Amino acid sequence: MKNLFILSVCLCLSTLAATAQKPEMAKAVVHYKFTHIRDTTAKDKPYTENMVLFLGQTASVYKSYDKKLQDALMRKQIETQMAEQKGNGGPMNIKVTSNKPTTRAEFYQFAAEGKLMRKETLITPYLIVEPIPVINWKISTDTASFGTLHCQKATGHFKGRDYTAWFCPDLPFRAGPWKLNGLPGLIVEAYDTNKEVEFKFDGIEQVVATDKPVVAAAPPQGPGTTVVRFGSMDDDIDPNLIAIPTNAVKTTDKEFANLQAAMKKDPQAFMAAMGGGANMRPGGGAITGSSAFSGDRMVVNVNSGTSGPVNNNPLELPEKK
Questions:
Q1: What order do you get walking across the sheet with 92-97 strand by strand?
Q2: Disulfide-capable partner of 119 in 106, 138, 213, 288 (CB 3.0 to 4.6 Å)?
Q3: So which residues are the signal peptide here (predicted)?
Q4: How far apart are CA 186 and CA 31, in angstroms?
């Protein structure tokens, strides 16, 4: 079964063609359990999250699986409460609860073009473009198996940390979790020296092509209907499609940091400035709203449930001089 899976993926890759960031279907999906000790004074309480890496012929995207599930749950909460309050005659008051903070950023790698694109969302999707990091990996003869995947060891320094990576030569993807890349095979697992950052392998699956793209049912449109869309909920896109949002605004790290600061300082004013059609009361995540009926008004209370942990140990550390 393992050899059949690897052969199937390799055959898909044999038609490799250089394309300029065109949308493409994923050939495989890798699951990782991400662990990060953000607060060094509470090492027994690391941040954990389920992540996924979609692998295509020329591109890959790494994103939060937990966020996908959480967004779906929050949307369901909104739809249920909208149905219950429909026809009340006054503004809708929606209460939304999410379990925990999740990673909002998505990392796209385009190896043929040497580009790394980070998608962030604050009402509007933003795109921060930079060169794909070049990591000076040293490959050793050590081997290990993760599930049915036979891997080889490599070590390298990146963003202030020394990493050990296990890659699978049988799977000829030069991608990996987060920004890790550049080995002659998929990076199956990786961790830094102190194991403060870990990307643990949690399974791999081949994507089976469908005859039709997966399209979600459109929400009802008409008087009295308000459509609420979460920042990165691309409901009309096949979940296995690797595609940069066509409406994404290119920006820089500095400019995006300024936007985040403005959002944190006054969420209501920020949403109004960005053209959001729904009011939001602070308490957690950000959403966008657009009204299908100009006379409708809705207040959305978002509660993230738990606040994010102290982060005195960022993923990217300054290089020691």
A1: 92-97, 298-303, 279-281
A2: 106
A3: 1-20
A4: 12
Other beta carbons within 10 angstroms of residue 292's beta carbon come to: 15
Q: What is the pTM of this model?
A: 0.80
Tokens of 310: 């102290």
In 3D, which of 285, 257, 282 has the Cα closest to residue 268? 282
pLDDT, one tens digit per residue, over 115-168 is 999 999 988 899 999 999 999 999 999 999 999 999 999 999 999 999 999 999
- The answer to whether position 73 is within a domain reads yes
Q: Residue 227's domain spans which residues?
A: 68-103+216-303
Cα distance between residue 47 and residue 223, in whole Å:
44
Does residue 314 fall inside a structural domain? Answer: no
Q: State how many domains the chain has.
A: 1
Q: How many residues does the chain have?
A: 321
* Neighbouring residues of 208: CB distance < 8 A, sequence distance ≥ 6: none
Q: Does the residue 186 lie in any domain?
A: no
The answer as to whether 299 is a domain residue is yes
pLDDT in tens, 84-100: 887 777 777 777 777 78
Query: Is residue 260 within 8 Å of residue 121, measured between CB atoms?
Result: no
Categorise residue 192: left if φ over 0, alpha if ψ from -120 to 50, beta otherwise.
Answer: beta
Locate 164 and state its tokens.
Answer: 């050990």
